[in-house]
Amino acid sequence: MTAGLRPGDRVRWQGSSGARDATYITDRDGMAVLKLDSGYNLGVPAGECTFLARAPAAAPPCGAVTQDPNLPELSIISTGGTIASRIDYRTGAVTSQFSAEDILRAIPQLRTVARYRTTQIASILSENMTPSLWQDLARAVYREIGKGVQGVIVTHGTDTMAYSAAAVSFMVETPVPVIFVGAQRSADRPSSDNAMNALCSAAAAVSPLGEVAVVMHGGTSDDRCAIHRATRVRKMHTSRRDAFQTLGGPPLGTVKYPSLQVDLTPDAARRGAAPLRLRDALEEHCGLLTFHPGLRPDVIRAFSGYRGLVLAGTGLGHVSSECVGAVKGLIDGGTEVVMTSQCLHGRVCDRVYDTGRDLLAAGVIEGEDLLPEVALVKLMWVLPQARDHDAVAALMRENLRGEIRPRSLHGP
Amino acid sequence: MDPDVPSLTAGIEIHQQLDTERKLFCRCPTLLRDTKEHSGGFTRFLRATESEMGEIDRAALEELKHVRRFTYYTYDTTCLVEDDEEPPQPLNPEALEIALSVARILGMNPVRQVHPMRKLVIDGSNTCGFQRTALVALAGRLPDGTGIDTICLEEDAAQRVEEGVFSLDRLGIPLVEITTAPDMHTPEAVQATAEYIGMVLRSTGRVKRGLGTIRQDVNISIAGGARVEIKGVQELDLIAEVVRREVRRQQSLLAIRDDLRGRGASVERQPQDVTSLSARSGSRILSKASCVLAVVLRGFAGLVGREIQPGRRLGSEMADYAKRCGVGGIFHTDELPAYGITAGEVETLRAHTGAGTGDCVVIVAGTPEQAGCAAQQVIRRAAMALEGVPEETRRMLPEGSTAYMRPLPGAARMYPETDVLPVTLDEGAWDRVPVPELLSDRAGRFVKEYGLDTAVARQIAFSERLPLFERAVAEGVNPRLAHRALIATPVEMARKGTDLSRLTDSQYLSVLQAVSTGKAAKEAVPDLLAALAAGKPEAEVLGSLTATLSPAELDAIVARVLKDRETFVRERGKAALGPLMGVVMAEVRGRVDGKLVSEALKRGLEKVVK
To answer: Mind telling me how many Å the CA of B18 is from chain A's nearest CA?
Structure first.
């Protein structure tokens, strides 16, 4: 029986191949997982193990970490995205590291770029992020900038990093760089993108940039990171290092690796250009719905009572004629409906076809070239500020944080 | 036990590529490519991760001395999994079944729940920085009593194209790794064990064949020596020689240690800068280097140059360590004057460094960083000589001597591959694992069932064309004919320079069927195979064959040929046989045995001559 065994305990395993001593790791699918002294794990029937000795205490990490007081100060705010981790080869456990000391121990080169203070506001997988955590995050960013740091780095799981970055971008006007960063490959592996992304994000955070951005690999090679505007970036691949892409134009700049040279385009906001301001109210009763052929009007009506709904329509911004009535009913009931396109690239125009004109007549707000997710976050942020439908429509269609490109440029 | 080496202990690790349809953790084919065909590439850095002790694994640390930026070639037969851009697929069940099959033959105990692990490797040969490996079975035994410790299923590494450049075609091909107990005590026993395990692997009929598909690592130690792992012995015939040479190397190093201790030898820990002495050296390496450092080894004279293995000296070992820092090698006074360095230069060097005639001076040249690093490596290795034999991973050189690769890896370099679920084997699954007939048993059966000679039967059983042989025999081809056509003839023809490697199984079978049905004579087989291998269409080569000639028909043809060339025949007499043989054969090739043609011609000639 493995009852009473703790990870790391020494046990004797008596199996058909003879008796041998091993380290108990955990229980899995009814088996006891042991680590042999060769380093290999294997699962054995629990009844074949007997306790020998308690786990020796894990050695504390050694080596003091010193920071250079002459370098600019950055703040690292962690939400649960793992930028640094430590492996206990004794048990095979991989633990995420959040303190400045531990992060610097894992990525020592960070010490050549800046000195750091760290805050942890959450320890969650990014799919568990919520609008109220976006608010906590925005307040933490605002607080840290208020303390005078030269830039902020937010470590975040990559799944919903673009949503959080957009949310912070709307809630915090910033004079300094606020850089969201994560890793697509786990931090325990020697090939992880964590170290290069972290170093590039630190370089971007001390650079002349003055807005909220995502800094991640610019290609599959370890040669440069791209700096993406928080309101134009989208995760476009499930697993590649360069999953994050700026849609509708080029990124704000690049950070070369390993030189850490930062190049910004003229489009990138510059340090000090905006005042520090926090506007952190959000209306959480908003939804995002992708239209598809055959979608029943019932599904649209299910949003009745919501304060806002973003539709990711087809093409120029359409739902079926059958659904137009349901959309009108929703709007008449007080829900603000914003149309975006599931094409992701290009601008919505509901004036070309009859269905579009019917949607406009029903009161749908054209979402310009807003990305559907960005439109959702923006609508949450706009609703508490706008007194009526016209004010909502005006704010939704105004470019506030670079989320709308007034002109559709050539290129992808 | 070898009387010369009363204390040899050796074990082997055998790595064999499996002939699966897909790779171990992705759906790419297990296909090796020409690097010229690569369709793209990328570059990466690998970083050593900190272990729980706050230490970096010592083998990993050694790799850090090297360039850490790696370039990888991709192909249309590789995918994002090899690029470390996508999580791995579940463990390939076909590969697991083959590994279990081998485990059953070796009488091993299967692991109930197989857990894929990550084994830290940061020499660039794995894009992730680790190799995925899983322990599949434990504790088996060979018929001669040698213990088999473990069998693991692992992914093959990427192939090194040049320094820092790797090709991803090989990465992920499934391998079984079989580790024996350290039960062998003679070089011959090591080789015999490797041969037996190789036979077991090939008995599955599901392993890759050819050079590079099987690699042996040999673990050796002698009493008072140290455990040394020799990597990548590809030729089976060399294993015993490798072991013999390693024993000799360890014995020599121990003798050198004893001599050094007897002399009260010591290593000066501080290298001396001799760059200014070297500016006008006859050696271009020294005169061109921006930094030249000297290390004085007190009491080492004559021992650095002493041979420890054919072609290898203690100095070669120091050079291997120094090369980790990017220098081309070292010079030492045991081998000087030479390489453009004059006796006068050596005198000056000795005087400058305060080295006496009993001392050896080692010089390294390069950039200040390279030379500094290399001098420290020389000092490290020289200090080890005072201790005896260092624990090392070594690589084999062409003749069977070895060179230093890196320290033996520490134990703490494995942790779970969390992206792959463990595989639980129920007892029924183990019972369903196929146990193939051993090739040695199959050879015995061929002797019994087909009345073949033992040597011939073994040749068939161990041949790559065994499956084709069995298919031909099942289709009614005479076993002797099948052996001749499929195994003996191609070997003979290859020796004569005829390349049959392009022939397909079905072409071989067509030729065999033509002989079996009497459409072609068995003597015609080499010609028919050569014609097909030369690219002639099968319809043309085999379609033109008419039925075998009867003796009467043959006699008629011979008589006609003799009549047509009557003058020639009368002039040359019996000596006309040779030239006429060609004329008749041109007409009857493939339809009648050449021996019968010769006999018919002889008879005809005798009549005419009389």
So the answer is: 21
